[in-house]
Each structure stands twice: as C-alpha cells, then as structure tokens.
C-alpha cells in the first residue's frame, strides 16, 4: 500500500478536536447500566462506552440501547464521549455504528474502531458516519474517529492508517491483542516479558507515536490489567508519558487519578514552561531587543525552547493548572 506523504495528510474535519484532554480514558461496559451511571461522576478526561470486548455477544444488541440512553440522558460534562464499536471483521460493526450514531450522535464526540489493520477500514467508517450525518441532519464531519492498533499488520500500516481520514483524532495502542498477535511470551498485559532485558514495547510505542505526530494526532497507551496495582500502573504509564504519549486507558476508578497525575506536568515544570514562553516573546519583541536567543536566569532560550515549552504549557493548561510565577522583563 502506498504511504501518504505529509503533504497529503488531511486537515481535521469541521468539529474534530485533536487537542481534547485524554490523560485518562476510562473503559465502561455498555452492557452494565450501573457502571454507565457511575462513570459520569469520575474525574476521567475521556469515557469510552464499550460494545466490543467488555460485552458478551448476546449482550451487544441491548448494550447499544443502554449506551444511547446513557449518552442522551446522562451528565457527561467535561468529558470526551466515545463509543468503542466492534471491529470490521465481525457481524456487529455496522449495526453498532448506525444504532449509536443515529440514536445519540448529537451527544457523541468520537467512535473508537478497534483492531484496525489498514487505512481502508478507517475510510469505511468515515463513509458510514458521513451517510448517517446526512440522513439525520447532523453537522457533517463533527464526529471523530479513534483508531486502535492491536496486531502486527496494523502496526506495519500505521502511517497509512494515521493519514486515512480527516476525522481521526487519536491512535491507540491495544497491548493485549497485540501481544497475542506476535506471540509475546507473557500473560501479564503491559508488563515486560521474562527473558528480555530491555523494554519490549519501546519500538511499538515509538512507531505509533511517530505516525500520530506526523499527522497531528494524539497517541494513547492501552490498559494495565492489574487494576489493584496502582504503583505498577504508574510505572507503565510513566514509560508512555516520558516518550510523549498524551494519556492511557483506565479500567478501574482507582487508576483515574494515577493517569491524570502521570500525564500532567508538575507545577514546577508548568510554571517554567510559561516563563519560557513569556520571556521569549519579550526578548524577540521590539522592547526586548528583537533577539533570537536570550537568557532566562542561567538558561539560554531560543525558538526550539519555545516549541518545547508550548508542549508542556499546553498539557498544563489542559490539566487545569494555574501559574504560580510571573515573568518580569529585566531592567535596561
């Protein structure tokens, strides 16, 4: 398959928001009304109502209607509202999309497509969403797509997948199915396989991250199944955060605060980033001498510093942090 060049990367569709906070992405079984209600009160940035692995086959039809009702009547204030449908190799996908989007499309932000293996699967979902929007009179292109990479073929094609649709907002790593697809020797999802001294996930995470960033998308790490081991969750989440990932799935309320903490900058780093932005703006101005580089305390800052600071400042603002320091122009 020909890989799209960066020049042909589609611009975001109208209404698509690739900057939504997604530090914590909470999975909620669509077949459990009690969990659907409880999720509304948890401090997760994103909630995805699941029709795939969390729902038994016989429960899927009823779960669709549970989700429609929850989206239309629940209070999801401050949360990105996502529904994970079944993958295209199953008999459930088209009905998942039609029932949910026709029933609650006005109260839905994104559809998550699991087990994406090539760009055409994203294109197919885009086309189906467009048809539903036209039929229902919804705003064209408003509903975003999240693509989940869960096997070797999907990873090999991730560049084309990331450039497949202007609706795309995120690329997500699905570790459990991925580990099975490559015969990784471990039964503990997210932990390192025995006998390998380095990080067995580094290449996978970096491959997804590069494809996401090349197309201005967010990159999200998948779940950690040992839900009572919060320290283990933080360690695995910290690996992804250090690389530059935007967030991670949470499977239990106890993981939500951990995710929000790990994927937010510290107060010190946030304050420093804002100071760099203010200082650089002043030094490059007429009043500051139109300098291309300058000193901020003992640190030299330039355009590259500004770009790095924008990333940290953006994450801090999205996390709701408030500045505790103020830039003051040096005396002449």
What is shown here, in short?
Helix content is 42%, strand content 14%. It is an alpha/beta fold and 332 residues long.
Strand order of the largest sheet: 1-2-3-4-5-6-7-8
Shape: globular
Unreliable runs: 1-7
Order of helices and strands: EHEHEHEHEHHEHHEHEHHEEH
**Average pLDDT rating:** 92
Structural class: alpha/beta
Beta strands, count:
10
DSSP strand (E) fraction?
Answer: 5-15%
Distance between the termini: 60 Å
Give Rg in angstroms.
21 Å
Which short descriptors sum up this protein?
332 residues; alpha/beta; eight-stranded parallel beta barrel; two-stranded antiparallel ribbon; 14% strand; disordered N terminus
What does the model show?
- By secondary structure, the chain is of the alpha/beta class.
- The chain contains twelve helices and ten strands.
- The strands form two sheets. An eight-stranded parallel barrel has the order 1-2-3-4-5-6-7-8, surrounded by six helices. Strands 9-10 form a two-stranded antiparallel ribbon.
- Mean pLDDT is 92; it is low at 1-7.
């Amino acid at each position: 398959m020909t890989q799209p060049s960066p020049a042909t990367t589609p611009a975001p569709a109208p209404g698509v928001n690739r900057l939504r906070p997604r530090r914590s992405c909470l999975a909620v079984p669509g077949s459990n009304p009690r969990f659907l209600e409880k999720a509304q009160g948890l401090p997760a940035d994103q909630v995805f109502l699941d029709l795939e692995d969390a729902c038994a086959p016989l429960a899927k039809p009823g779960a669709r209607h549970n989700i429609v009702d929850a989206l239309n009547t629940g209070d999801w204030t401050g949360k990105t509202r996502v529904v994970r449908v079944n993958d295209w190799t199953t008999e459930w996908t088209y009905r998942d999309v039609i029932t949910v989007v026709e029933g609650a499309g006005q109260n839905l932000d994104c559809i998550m497509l699991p087990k994406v293996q090539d760009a055409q699967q994203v294109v197919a979902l885009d086309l189906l969403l467009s048809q539903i929007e036209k039929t229902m009179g919804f705003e064209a292109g408003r509903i975003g797509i999240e693509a989940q990479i869960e096997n070797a073929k999907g990873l090999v094609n991730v560049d084309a997948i990331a450039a497949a649709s202007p609706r795309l907002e995120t690329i997500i790593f699905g570790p459990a199915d991925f580990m099975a697809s490559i015969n990784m020797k471990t039964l503990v999802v997210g932990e390192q396989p025995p006998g390998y001294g380095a990080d067995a996930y580094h290449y996978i995470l970096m491959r997804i991250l590069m494809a996401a960033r090349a197309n201005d998308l967010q990159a999200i790490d998948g779940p950690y199944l040992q839900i009572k081991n919060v320290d283990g969750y933080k360690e695995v989440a910290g690996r992804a955060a250090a690389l530059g990932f935007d967030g991670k799935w949470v499977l239990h309320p106890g993981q939500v605060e951990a995710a929000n903490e790990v994927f937010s900058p510290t107060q010190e780093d946030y304050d420093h980033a804002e100071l760099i932005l203010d200082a650089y703006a002043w030094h490059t101005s007429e009043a500051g001498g139109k300098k291309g580089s300058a000193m901020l305390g003992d640190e030299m800052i330039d355009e590259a510093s500004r770009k790095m600071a924008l990333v940290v400042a953006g994450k801090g603002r999205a996390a709701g942090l408030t500045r505790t320091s103020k830039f003051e122009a040096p005396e002449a």
